Amino acid sequence: QVQLVESGGGLVQAGGSLRLSCAASGPIGTIVHMGWYRQAPGKQRDLVATIATGGLTNYADSVKGRFTISRDNAAKNTVYLQMNTLKPEDTAVYYCLAFVTVYGVPAQDYWGQGTLVTVSS
Fold first, then answer.
1. Measured between alpha carbons, how far is residue 20 from residues 7, 90, 94 in Å?
2. pLDDT tens, N- to C-terminus, the chain (121 residues)
3. Cα gap 11→120, rounded to integer Å
4. In this structure, which of 8, 63, 66, 83 has its CB flanked by the most CB atoms within 10 Å?
5. Integer CA distances (angstroms), 85 to 2, 11, 21, 50, 95, in order
6. Which residues pair with 52 in a beta bridge?
7. Residue 35: count of CB within 10 angstroms of its CB
8. How close are the terminal C-alpha atoms of the chain, in Å?
């Protein structure tokens, strides 16, 4: 069973920074990409950022220039989301996603349990 463990959420004032971490473990074959999504109360879950195995990144327009996704060079199963200049509208539960193959099984999505980020004005 692939498991994703997130950490780093919390309460921060507008303009502040937070860094989220996500570590994937289990019988992982190939990581196609990993990323972060977020879900605010009463809203759908939306893409924040993704990073592919080759390093190609993709960001939601709302976070471009403020958030940076990166991957641990040593621990390839770990990704980070550096969030700067946070705004109250960034308040949400942030979920880590890993699109991976498990030995003998085609690639599919695996989700973390979510970590709450609250930005106060």
1. 6, 13, 9
2. 899 999 999 999 999 999 999 999 998 888 899 999 999 999 999 999 999 988 999 999 999 999 999 998 777 799 999 999 999 999 999 999 999 998 888 999 999 999 999 999 9
3. 7
4. 83
5. 33, 14, 18, 19, 20
6. 33
7. 22
8. 40
Amino acid in position 90:
D
Beta strands (DSSP E) in the chain are: 3-7, 10-13, 18-25, 28-39, 45-52, 57-59, 67-71, 78-83, 92-102, 105-111, 115-120
CA distance 1 to 60: 29
Q: What is the dihedral of CA 10, 18, 58, 60, to 10 degrees?
A: 60
Count of other CB atoms within 10 angstroms of residue 74: 6
Q: Tokens 């196609």 label which residue? A: 32
What does the block give as tokens for 59? Answer: 């960001």
The token pair at 70 is: 């990166």
Query: What are the φ and ψ backbone dihedral angles of 88, each rounded to 5 degrees?
Result: -55, -30
